[in-house]
Amino acid sequence: MDAAAFEFWLGAIADLTEQQRQRVLQALSPSPAVKPGGGQAHDRAMERPGAAPRHSGADAADVSGIGGHKVAVTGCPHCGQGDVARWGTASGLPRYRCKACARTFNALTKTPLAKLRMREKWGEQAGAMIDGVSLAQAAQRCGVHYTTAFRWRHRFLAALSGDKPKTLSGIVESDETFILESFKGKRSGLPRKARKRGGASAKRGLSAEQIPIIVARDRHGATTDAVLARLNRLSIAAALGGVVTKANAFCCDGGSAIVAFARRAEIAAHVLPRPGKPDPLAPDYHLNNVNAYHGRLKEWLRRFHGVATKNLPNYLGWRRALEALGQSVSAASIILGAMGLGPYQQQTL
């Protein structure tokens, strides 16, 4: 399509009906329909930090095109209205004008990627995230400084950390797991002696050094999780309230905090003290699904040799996005998620 025809096509978007808009969005979608739980079908190359990169910058498509898809789906970032029109170009990105509030914007406005430079390297950054490489390896791939690679990683993860399913369906398994507290990156004022490369806990078993994480997962693979301030009913209710409802068959391990949450929310709980051995009379009720997710999460985190506790929600969102995207993961889908249109948000629009 030549430039004149393209501009004509863009100008006609405002006149499309809602049904026509949906057809255009499907045609422009940067990846196949998202199916939660696809992470179980990941090939093992994704799990090996030393594996050759499977996703290069060429896979990222054009940031302008990805941004155009995001704007078409979410509309104006200022007022949320969908009636927008092209409004020129600035800094290499198309601008848009909202017909409702008359404000202009681009696809990165009010996103964590706003004002982030070197967009031509974002594809390599997204590919490094898909492959789960270290910061040093990501910096080398992208040709940037180590500190830039760190900043990019967390700017890309800022939106994904909050991308969670609004509700879970059918049978829901929930259980807590624990990650060793870490002050990685902190150079002074540590409350204890520094550990090297993750290290080990000073005490055996559960202690204040272990940070509780609650995970809830349905049989379709939709997953929500949260770092808990404390392992008690209030913290679990803040994480799972409204996501797990009375409509769910709720499977848990009988811990006092999670049982108290279910009782207060009036959710019928199936207590399973032996997650590996479901009751023969009720074989569908077990915790094998969520415990397998715990195992994949911890195995994936091991490559980072300790994750700073303050950054742990970002890493949970990172793993959750990879699992939700499954084999449809691409640099374009990661960039789209970093723009604020993650896999779970796409499903609810």
In terms of topology, how is this protein built?
Blueprint lengths: L2 H10 L5 H11 L34 H12 L9 E7 L2 E6 L5 E3 L15 H10 L3 H8 L3 H15 L10 E10 L29 E9 L4 E5 L5 H8 L8 E4 L3 H9 L4 E3 L16 H14 L10 H14 L5 H8 L4 H6 L1
Parallel strand pairs: 4-7, 7-8
Antiparallel strand pairs: 1-2, 2-3, 4-5, 5-6
Structure in words:
This protein has 349 residues and is an alpha/beta fold. It has two domains: 3-163, no CATH class; 171-315, Nucleotidyltransferase, domain 5. It has helices at 3-12, 18-28, 63-74, 122-131, 135-142, 146-160, 233-240, 256-264, 288-301, 312-325, 331-338, 343-348, and strands spanning 84-90, 93-98, 104-106, 171-180, 210-218, 223-227, 249-252, 269-271. The chain has a five-stranded mixed sheet with strand order 6-5-4-7-8, with helices on both faces. Strand 7, helix 8 and strand 8 form a beta-alpha-beta unit. Helix 4 packs across helix 11 (331-338) and helix 5 packs across helix 6. The two termini are 30 Å apart. Mean pLDDT is 83; it is low at 30-61.
Notable characteristics:
349 residues; globular; 2 domains
SS content category: alpha/beta
Total strands: the figure is 8
Low-confidence stretches: 30-61
Percent range of helical residues: 25-40%
What is the mean pLDDT? Answer: 83
User: Main beta sheet: strand number and arrangement?
Assistant: 5 strands, mixed
Strand content: 5-15%
SSE succession = HHHEEEHHHEEEHEHEHHHH
**Helix segment tally:** 12
Q: Give the N-terminus to C-terminus distance in angstroms.
A: 30 Å
Spatial order of the strands in the main sheet? 6-5-4-7-8
